[in-house]
Amino acid sequence: MGGLYVIEGATLGGQIIRKHLHRHFGSPVAGALSFYSGYGKQAAQEWRAFGASLGSLFDKAERDAQNEVVAGANATFSALEAWLAPLSGPVLRGEA
User: Fold this and answer.
1) What angle do CA 11, 42, 27 make, to 5 degrees?
2) Rounded to two decimals, what is the model's pTM?
3) Could you tell me the residue ranges of all domains in the chain?
4) Whose CA is closest to 67, among 8, 56, 9, 75?
5) Which of 15, 46, 53, 87 is most buried, judging by how many CB atoms fall within 10 Å of its CB?
6) Which are the contacts of 66, defined by CB distance < 8 A and separation ≥ 6?
7) What digits encode the pLDDT tens for the residues 39-93?
8) Interior angle at CA 90, CA 94 and CA 7, nearest 5
9) Residue 36 in contact with residue 18, Cβ under 8 Å?
10) Distance between CA atoms of 1 and 60, rounded to whole angstroms?
11) Which residues of 23-53 are buried (b: 16+ CB within 10 A; e: fewer)?
């Protein structure tokens, strides 16, 4: 569930990234931004539904299970960071 939290959150964040890129580059890149569209106009609704599911789990889960979900989210963030690290040149690190 922690990993799903990260991925589902990314679909919501993708909407913000898509809007920013579209504003910056205009309609010529619109088709190339579909990766960031995720659930499209349903993104907020899907995020709320996921949050409700996760919340109901937390209502019933023991503290150890809650800690496992948080650990899963942290592990997912760490895995994504390690996966993207080779792409992190000076521009991405803010050194350019």
Assistant:
1) 75
2) 0.74
3) 2-86
4) 75
5) 15
6) 58
7) 888 988 999 999 998 888 876 667 788 889 999 999 999 999 888 888 876 655 5
8) 70
9) yes
10) 14
11) eeeeeeeeeebeebebeeeebeeebeebeee
Structure tokens at 17: 């990234």
In this structure, which amino acid lies at residue 63?
R
Report residue 88 as tokens. Answer: 């992190």
Written as six digits, the tokens of 77 are 């963030």
For residue 13, the one-letter residue type is G
Tokens 């650990």 identify what position? Answer: 71
Q: Find the radius of gyration of the CA atoms of the chain.
A: 17
Helices (DSSP H) in 1-96: which residue ranges?
2-25, 43-60, 63-84
What residue type is assigned to position 66 of the chain?
Q
